[in-house]
Amino acid sequence: MIFASTTTIPTLYTSADLRFQGIGTLRNGRLNQVMTWLLSAFAFVLPVDLRLAGDKSVAMRLGYVCLLLGLAGLIKRRDIMLPTAGFWWLLAFVSWCSFSLVWARFPDIAQHKILLYIAVFAVTAIIPQYAWDDRVRARLMDAYLAGCVLGIFGTVMNFTLNNSYVSEGEVVAEGRYSYNTDPNYLALALVIGIPLALHRAGSVSARWQKVLELLYVPAAVAAVFLTGSRGALIALVMIVLVYSLFSGLRAPALLLGGVGLCVLIGALLPAQISERFAGIPDELRYGTLSDRRELWDRGKAVIAEYPFEGIGVGATSGTMDIAAHNTPLELTMEGGVVSLSLFYGAILVGLYGAWRSNRKESRALIALWAAWVAGSLSLSWEIDTNTWFLFAMLFSAASARPIDSVFHTSASQ
Predict the structure, then answer these.
(1) Residue 322: closest CA among 344, 291, 300
(2) Looking at residue 252, what is its pLDDT?
(3) CA angle (281, 285, 288) in 5-degree steps
(4) With contact defined as beta carbons under 8 Å apart, do 209 and 146 qualify?
(5) 3-state DSSP call for residue 43?
(6) Using alpha carbons only, what angle is made at residue 35 by residues 79 and 389, rounded to the nearest 5 degrees?
(7) How far is residue 86's CA from residue 102's CA, in Å, rounded to a whole number?
């Protein structure tokens, strides 16, 4: 017979408790690993917008899986990261859009878009719960860049085979090339990848990885030229300007280097492609901007009549039978200045939080969001999954904290 003293019994219980805690930690670690892989797959498919049969988004299906598994993980670990201020601004935006159903001109379209907003917001909210760790964010950045590389290879392949982009309406865009998605969408995603590649190049220690990250920049610029996206080229200029502001005395050299790289790559491409970009100044002053100018004039008329509340979510496509091809215009048409303020307020507040948390990473975030703002002036990207992934990365960086402090907090609880 074995006897246990009163001092031994607590020790036995303590050992068992620690053993069970160890098992729980191992299971949580495996769950976090699975979540990281799923989130990486989600980030990978975004740039090229991979689709299933029936034009169903792969990204959204992966996002739903991440959401369900992520919620299960939060319940299991009984711990959440407190949302940042930018998160609450974005929640207010989604809430206002949902409330606009009351006065929406096209309720059926409004309901569909509101459900999309709620879905992408839910996925955006779950990502920072796992990506507060900069190692996870690095994995997501690499996955996004891998998706961009797939888009680059696909675009170059189509250029080599002379397979011009064909739109959903079977309209052939001569001299414009892409892979699996609209060339304007792909081009902006490739440009957004440039600050991520530069950030990763400055973070990794392996020389081969640093070289690969840096090689992404000229490859992305060349692919942007092949897409023929003038909006993406303007977004590229914004990145050069932002990095120049952060470079101090090196700014003139960086500006000249960025311009020189674009000119060199443009000179090596066929004349049909380079001429499209050379005509940007005249197109801005006298052209139709690919028939966008008329859409924007109609949108301005709606805003003048309903400046505060807009005409309800989804009303842009209902009124024009097409997207506004201008994100701030579409936001203001559908939700008035309230929607516009909340949406862009979430960006600004998120950038401020990221700047306070991590200056180095926030420079890349400021550059990519500057590119997004410039590029979205000719695209309706307020509902695009790329945009909401960038929100998630922004809020993750703003909520980042050292690993030691998280373990210390968990242990004390």
Answers:
(1) 291
(2) 61
(3) 105
(4) no
(5) helix
(6) 95
(7) 26
Distances (CA, A) of 208 to 149, 190, 224, 384: 16, 21, 25, 33
- The full DSSP string for 80-95 is -PPPPHHHHHHHHHHH
Structure-token pair, residue 282: 């005249």
Q: What phi-psi label fits residue 291: left (phi over 0), alpha (psi between -120 and 50 degrees) or beta?
A: left
Phi, psi of 400, rounded to the nearest 5 degrees = -65, 145
Distance CA 323, CA 316 (A): 6
> What band does 110 get if pLDDT is binned at 50, 70 and 90?
very high
How far apart are alpha carbons 298 and 400 in whole angstroms? Answer: 43
The H or E element spanning position 394 is helix 385-398
On whether the pTM is more than 0.85, the answer is yes
Report strand pairing: 51-52 vs 165-166: unpaired
CB 338 within 8 A of CB 129: no
Q: Which amino acid is at 305?
A: E
Q: Tell me the C-alpha distance between 195 and 208, whole Å.
A: 19
The residue type at 372: W
Vertex 389 angle, CA 349 and 258, to 5°? 80
Whether 401 shows a pLDDT value over 70: the answer reads no
Q: Are 327 and 381 in contact (CB under 8 A)?
A: yes
Cα gap 395→283, rounded to integer Å = 37
Percent of the chain with pLDDT over 90: 56
Give the number of other CB atoms < 10 A from CB of residue 18. Answer: 10
C-alpha radius of gyration, the chain, whole number: 24
Cβ–Cβ under 8 Å, residues 131 and 391: no
Distance CA 239, CA 197 (A): 12
One-letter amino acid for residue 129 of the chain: Q
DSSP state of 325: S
Structure tokens belonging to residue 190: 């490739």
Q: Is pLDDT above 50 for 134?
A: yes
CA-to-CA dists, residue 273 to 133, 170, 186, 218, angstroms: 42, 21, 16, 17
Question: For residues 78 and 387, what is the distance between their CA atoms, to the nearest angstrom?
Answer: 29
Rounded Cα distance, 194 and 214, in Å: 9
